[in-house]
Amino acid sequence: MKKITLLFFALLTGMLANAQETLYAENFESNVAILGDGQMHTFKPSTKAGTWSGGIDLKTAGDANVNLRQGWGEQYNLKIESKGAAVTIPNINVVGFTNLNLSYEFVVEDAGDAVAPKIEASVDGGASWVTLPTVASGGGWSKEAKLLALPSGNYKTISLRINPNTVSSNAIMFDNFIITGKKL
């Protein structure tokens, strides 16, 4: 009985030591009022400062408009038009964590085919960007959850940039950006 208890304790300790912790979570709800399925809010990021669920203000080049489209019940999705501006989530604090992963939900609007979204990461405050290895998903209103590894290393912040769909004219939508990591 002692050996079984000891083995169980060792396994539990090992699992806890390798557990991923949530460092950042953004569901793009902001402080906008619920309007009804399919409705959209369009606004400049500067007008919504300090209201995002992840606690970090979204940015666009030149303060270009951001779109939140309601769908899948009472929730919003970040909608990026094919000719829209890239949306940046700057300087997410990751001090003391490694093995970073990003999970997100993704969908292509209308009858669009699956798309490999272009998501980039920067570990130097946006001075340089690396394209993350995404896979094609989310075709024609098919919302899919995805997980991918972020650049490895020991750094203070990571920034994410979500780019428009250049494959077709269909808009793309994102929800539930979650960054997890393992404590050093």
Q: How many separate helices?
A: 1
Low-confidence stretches: 2-16
Shape: globular
What class, by secondary structure content? mainly beta
N-to-C terminal Cα separation, in Å? 34 Å
Q: What's the count of strands?
A: 12
Give a short account of the largest sheet. Answer: 7 strands, antiparallel
Task: Note the run of SSEs as H and E.
Answer: HEEEEEEEEEEEE
Helix content: under 10%
Portion in beta strands: 35-45%
- Average pLDDT, rounded to a whole number, is 87
Radius of gyration: 18 Å
Provide a compact summary of the structure.
The chain has one helix at residues 2-17, and strands at 21-26, 40-43, 59-60, 66-70, 76-80, 87-93, 97-108, 119-122, 130-131, 144-149, 157-162, 172-183.
Describe this structure in words.
- The chain is mainly beta and 184 residues long.
- The protein is 9% helix and 39% strand.
- It has one helix and twelve strands, in the order αββββββββββββ.
- It has one helix spanning 2-17, and strands spanning 21-26, 40-43, 59-60, 66-70, 76-80, 87-93, 97-108, 119-122, 130-131, 144-149, 157-162, 172-183.
- Strands 1, 2, 4, 5, 7, 10 and 12 form a seven-stranded antiparallel sheet that branches.
- β4 and β5 form a beta hairpin.
- Residues 2-16 have low confidence and may be disordered.
- Keywords: Signal.
- Residues 1-19 form the signal peptide.
